[in-house]
Amino acid sequence: MAGKNKKKRGVFLTTMNILNVIVLLLLFLSLLVPSINKEAFQNLPSLYPLFTYILMLVSALSFYGIWTWQKWGVNLYLCISIAAFLIEFITLPNQSMTLIWGIFTGAIYFCAIYRKWSYFK
User: Which pLDDT tens digit goes with each residue over 24-49?
Assistant: First the structure.
């Protein structure tokens, strides 16, 4: 099997996946603490926490798909990113950082995935 082309994830894509999982875990842990949860969601619509939990769950699934070289993981991540951006943009008006951060992280992740796209099945 020495002639078989082995998929190499690369440092950049691996780092992006690990950082995203760490952010996801920190967000999940912060939402479990009642005092943080109360302060974070007090001025937001009542369904916002539910959307946050759902997006976190689906994000974890998409990171698994990306880690295992599945195109559905990339597509799911794209859908989640668009949904999260729209939800935040609608519920948090006048937040220009939401737009800037969404474009910035999307561009970085796109660069990480684009170079390895041929490995995804």
Answer: 888 777 777 767 666 666 766 777 77
| Amino acid type, 89 | F
Q: Can you give the pLDDT at residue 69?
A: 87
> In the predicted model, what is the mean pLDDT of residues 96-120?
80
Own/partner contacts of 51-59, CB < 8 Å, gap of 24 or more, are 51/87, 52/27, 55/80, 55/83, 55/84, 55/87, 56/24, 56/27, 56/28, 59/20, 59/24
**Contacts (Cβ under 8 Å, ≥6 apart) of 7:** 69, 116, 119
For the chain, the domains span 11-119
Residue identified by tokens 């009642």 is: 34
